[in-house]
């Protein structure tokens, strides 16, 4: 996808350089000496090279200029609402200004045409279509019943080309159905058959997993946005993050030599999103990765990831049984303050049954920005990343 780039500073720089060049041209030059006359003095250029025009960046900048703080916060939320009727989901998008929605099994009708009708009904603004995400790994995690391509349970023991073939087919099915984000590339790695994540990993050693992760990303490029999960690696942290906070004392050096390798390969291949898991790597940070600024620094600075960082379902953190994560608004504030770009919530039909009030969530985050607890510049950076993906969909920028 086109890299995020703002053109206004470049335009200003051209104007300034042009003005300076005009002044320089008006000054008289000293008479050359005979020696200097033998070699013509180079004439400095007074024309600056303009930055290439980027319609996505220009459009994103304009859109953000019209957004208030609450609208920016809404753009960083990805929510789920059950059912195959697009109207209630669309109403959420309109009411909260959502950046995206996640489709679960309860949103998927019996055939591709019906799903396409649902996803088409979610577009409120043709210039900024929502991110429509789905967990389509294949194998044991498959929302589309008509996806017959192999999943990781099979692909891990086949040549890398089989992964390319499977994810090429999978990406096409998702695009045809109107989904534009696949939460389907598991970059975790483990050789332990007793691990919760083992049936879903694409390799049982870092190199094998990395090769298949990169192949899956490559197969999806230009068709749907790819997501790597669950950073920094569920395979290294025993336990199930749906009901607990898995923990490991793995050192950063050992992580870099093992669990990091598939993520690095997927980022290098062009993955547009990385999903953080609710995982504690205590040698790096006592906080779970979803609320850890240390892990976000590793993702950005060490792995060079420039795309959208999204959390795993925030309700999982809330349900972990750990008292400090019982408050959903506090969890959201901590995640955004740490540097996450988007917050994911797989909500039931009545969010209050799981302690969620979306209006209160947005208000609480906005208050944290206004108090300085969350850096407003960081919020703007996150909104720009999310809107860049959404605007690129409208312009079909590959």
Shape: globular
Count of runs of 4 or more consecutive helical residues:
16
The averaged pLDDT comes out at: 89
Low-pLDDT stretches are 1-38
Instruction: Give the SSE string.
Output: HHHHEHEHEEEHHEHEEHHEEHEHHEHH
> What is the helix fraction of residues, given as a range?
40-55%
Instruction: Tell me how many strands there are.
Output: 12
Question: Based on helices, strands and strand pairing, what is the structural class?
Answer: alpha/beta
The largest beta-sheet arranges its strands as 1-2-3-6-7-9-11-12
Write the layout of secondary structure elements.
Layout: H1 8-26, H2 34-38, H3 55-65, H4 69-74, E1 77-79, H5 86-96, E2 100-103, H6 112-120, E3 131-134, E4 136-138, E5 141-142, H7 152-155, H8 160-177, E6 181-186, H9 206-220, E7 225-231, E8 247-248, H10 252-257, H11 260-269, E9 273-276, E10 280-281, H12 293-302, E11 308-313, H13 314-318, H14 328-338, E12 342-345, H15 358-370, H16 376-395
Parallel strand pairs: 1-2, 1-12, 2-3, 3-6, 6-7, 7-9, 8-10, 9-11, 11-12
Antiparallel strand pairs: 4-5
Helix pairs in contact: 3-16, 8-9, 9-11, 14-15
Q: How would you characterize the overall build of this protein?
A:
This protein is α/β, with parallel strands linked by helices. The protein is 43% helix and 12% strand. The protein contains 16 helices and twelve strands. The protein has an eight-stranded parallel beta barrel with strand order 1-2-3-6-7-9-11-12, surrounded by five helices. Strands 4-5 form a two-stranded antiparallel ribbon. It starts with 7 loop residues before the first helix and ends with a helix.
């Amino acid at each position: 996808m086109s890299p995020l780039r703002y053109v206004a500073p470049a335009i200003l720089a051209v104007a300034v350089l042009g003005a300076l060049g005009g002044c320089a041209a008006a000054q008289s030059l000293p008479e050359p000496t005979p020696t200097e006359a033998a070699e013509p003095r180079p004439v400095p250029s007074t024309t600056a090279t303009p930055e290439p025009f980027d319609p996505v960046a220009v459009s994103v900048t304009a859109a953000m200029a019209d957004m208030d703080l609450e609208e920016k916060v809404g753009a960083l939320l990805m929510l789920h609402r059950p059912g195959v009727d697009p109207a209630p989901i669309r109403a959420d998008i309109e009411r909260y200004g959502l950046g995206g929605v996640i489709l679960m099994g309860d949103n998927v009708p019996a055939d591709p045409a019906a799903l396409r009708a649902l996803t088409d009904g979610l577009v409120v603004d043709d210039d900024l279509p929502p991110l429509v995400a789905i967990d389509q790994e294949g194998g044991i995690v498959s929302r589309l019943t008509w996806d017959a391509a192999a999943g990781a349970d099979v692909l891990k023991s086949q040549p890398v080309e089989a992964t390319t073939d499977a994810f090429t087919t999978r990406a096409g099915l998702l695009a045809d159905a109107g989904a534009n984000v696949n939460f389907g590339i598991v970059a975790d790695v483990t050789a332990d058959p007793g691990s919760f994540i083992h049936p879903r990993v694409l390799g049982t050693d870092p190199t094998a997993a990395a090769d298949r992760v990169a192949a899956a990303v490559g197969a999806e490029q230009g068709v749907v946005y790819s997501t790597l999960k669950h950073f920094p690696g569920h395979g290294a942290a025993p336990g199930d993050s749906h009901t607990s906070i898995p923990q490991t004392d793995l050192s950063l050096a050992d992580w870099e030599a093992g669990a990091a390798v598939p993520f690095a390969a997927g980022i290098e291949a062009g993955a547009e999103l990385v999903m953080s898991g609710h995982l504690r790597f205590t040698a790096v940070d006592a906080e779970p990765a979803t609320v850890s600024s240390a892990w976000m620094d590793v993702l950005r600075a060490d792995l060079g990831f420039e795309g959208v960082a999204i959390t795993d379902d925030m309700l999982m953190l809330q349900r972990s049984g750990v008292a400090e994560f019982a408050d959903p608004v506090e969890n959201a504030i901590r995640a955004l303050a740490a540097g996450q770009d988007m917050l994911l919530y797989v909500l039931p039909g009545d969010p209050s049954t799981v302690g969620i009030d979306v209006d209160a969530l947005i208000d609480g985050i906005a208050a944290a920005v206004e108090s300085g607890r969350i850096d407003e510049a960081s919020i703007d950076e996150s909104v720009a990343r999310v809107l860049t993906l959404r605007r690129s969909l409208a312009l079909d920028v590959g």
